[in-house]
Write a structure and sequence with these properties.
Elements (H helix, E strand, L loop, with lengths): L4 E3 L8 E3 L24 H4 L2 E3 L3 H9 L10 E3 L9 E2 L19 E2 L14 H16 L3 H13 L5 H8 L4
Antiparallel strand pairs: 1-2, 3-4, 5-6
Amino acid sequence: ADDFAYVPPTGLKGDSLDARLRIDRSQPDHPGNERYLILYTSTAQMAGQTTLEHPAKAYAKALGNEPPSIPDPIARHSPVGVVKLVMIRDGEQSATKGYVPGYSIGHEMGNRLPSVPAPSVLPETSAYYRQAIDAALTQQDLERALRLADEAARVGDTGAKAYLLERIQIK
């Protein structure tokens, strides 16, 4: 909890909890290198809440005006959310200390390295997508069935599109 700090909205960047962590990958094949990032929270922290800056106040501050006297929204802590990880190589630091631009120099995570095999899809996941594709086709919603097949392919179910093609009846 001490590593993350609430950052109010500025410019085009919204509210966030930000932290800067150093991951040493200077010796790529070294077995002691960090390979995982685990975010842990306690039950007490999950029961808490964070007061955010109201967007109208942020807008007024950006224009150099007096912020309105309105209550700030409260975000209740939740077990789900979005984690955005931006990797910056040493030496690519921004000229301004402490500022990490969201879309300019960071290398966003999300694509797997070619050398790392994708984990296999659970049978339950494949069964779920096949049932959902069947249900969409029963309702004659081809667009939904195609979206489900694409989504299944993104999670690693390579047979979902072939399954859909087998089920489509050309009239």
